[in-house]
């Protein structure tokens, strides 16, 4: 670990992007199983572009989707973080801050995504002062929806939408929306 650390949890370090992340990040984003709920796996050019956008958002907003590594081995697991979406067309619930995650298959089933996401929720509500954080995915993405529920988010039954970056008839265009308000998070006092 050499770069800036944003947050730490029991098992994880949540830190700034570094050039050395670009190779393992492309490995992650080109895995067809990891990307099965997205339009397609990403080329090297597109995964590099995503890293650059995250770095820009970090500078602009003070947060972004950020690398996750284990404390014990320093292995790059993927990203978890907060982001102001910047798609070609607006989302129906803009302006918003979303929370998102994408981890290597080898890191699944260990609670890492939820552990990192809870730390980012605390950062978003307590440090940034956000009133609400949202998350969205396609209905079939049960693992991601379980993370949303596990960290205290609730589905907005009236919030289903078609992703603005995709044609309406694209198989992964329909999305479900989850929300968490700061007042609810404070009441729940998650650890
Ligand atoms: C979404 C994704 C991050 C979820 O990963 P995950 O490992 O299922 O979620 P968590 O890290 O929160 O781990 C929870 C699981 O670990 C288990 N677990 C094992 N040890 C644990 C521990 N010490 N602490 C907590 N949970 C633990 C939990 O029981 C749970 O298992 P279950 O889902 O079978 O009940 C992962 O599937 C992924 O990266 N998918 C591809 C990218 C993607 O779709 N991203 C979302 C786009 S919206």
3D architecture notes:
By secondary structure, the chain is an alpha+beta fold. It has a single domain, classed as Aminopeptidase. The chain is built from five helices and nine strands; from the N terminus they run ββααβββαβαβββα. Strands 1-2-3-4-5 form a five-stranded antiparallel sheet, sandwiched between helices. A hairpin with a 5-residue loop joins strand 3 and strand 4. Helix 1 packs across helix 2. The radius of gyration is 16 Å and the shape is globular. Bound molecules: coenzyme A. The site of coenzyme A has 20 residues, from strand 5, helix 3 and helix 4.
Record keyword descriptors for this entry.
binds coenzyme A; 191 residues; 5 helices; 9 strands; alpha+beta; 5-stranded antiparallel sheet; 31% helix
Query: Order of strands in the sheet with the most strands?
Result: 1-2-3-4-5
Pairing-aware structural class of the strands and helices?
alpha+beta
Q: What is the level-2 CATH architecture name?
A: 3-Layer(aba) Sandwich
Poorly predicted runs are none
Helix content: 25-40%
CATH class: Alpha Beta
Number of H- or I-type helical stretches: 5
> Which percent range describes the beta-strand content?
15-25%
* SSE succession: EEHHEEEHEHEEEH
> So, the CATH homologous superfamily?
Gcn5-related N-acetyltransferase (GNAT)
CATH fold naming: Aminopeptidase
Bound molecules: coenzyme A
Oligomeric form of this entry? single chain
Integer-rounded radius of gyration: 16 Å
Main β sheet profile: 5 strands, antiparallel
Distance between the termini: 26 Å
Question: What's the structural domain tally?
Answer: 1
Mean pLDDT: 96
Shape: globular
Number of strands: 9
Domain N-acetyltransferase: 12-183
Protein name: GNAT family N-acetyltransferase
GO molecular function: acyltransferase activity, transferring groups other than amino-acyl groups
Pfam families: Acetyltransf_3
């Amino acid at each position: 670990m050499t770069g800036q650390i944003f947050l730490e949890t029991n098992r994880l370090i949540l830190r700034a992007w570094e050039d050395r992340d670009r190779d393992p990040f492309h490995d992650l984003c080109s895995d067809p199983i990891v990307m099965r709920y997205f339009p397609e796996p990403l080329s090297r050019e597109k995964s590099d572009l995503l890293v650059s956008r995250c770095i820009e958002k970090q500078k602009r907003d003070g947060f972004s989707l950020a690398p996750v590594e284990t404390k014990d081995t320093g292995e790059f697991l993927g990203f978890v973080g907060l982001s102001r979406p910047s798609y070609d067309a607006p989302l129906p619930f803009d302006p918003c801050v979303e929370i998102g995650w994408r981890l290597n298959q080898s890191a699944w089933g260990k609670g890492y995504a939820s552990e990192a996401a809870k730390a980012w929720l605390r950062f978003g509500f307590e440090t940034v002062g956000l009133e609400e954080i949202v998350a969205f995915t396609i209905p079939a993405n049960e693992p991601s929806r379980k993370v949303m529920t596990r960290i205290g988010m609730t589905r907005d039954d009236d919030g289903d939408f078609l992703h603005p970056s995709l044609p309406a008839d694209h198989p992964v265009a329909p999305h479900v929306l989850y929300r968490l308000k700061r007042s609810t998070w404070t009441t729940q006092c998650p650890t």
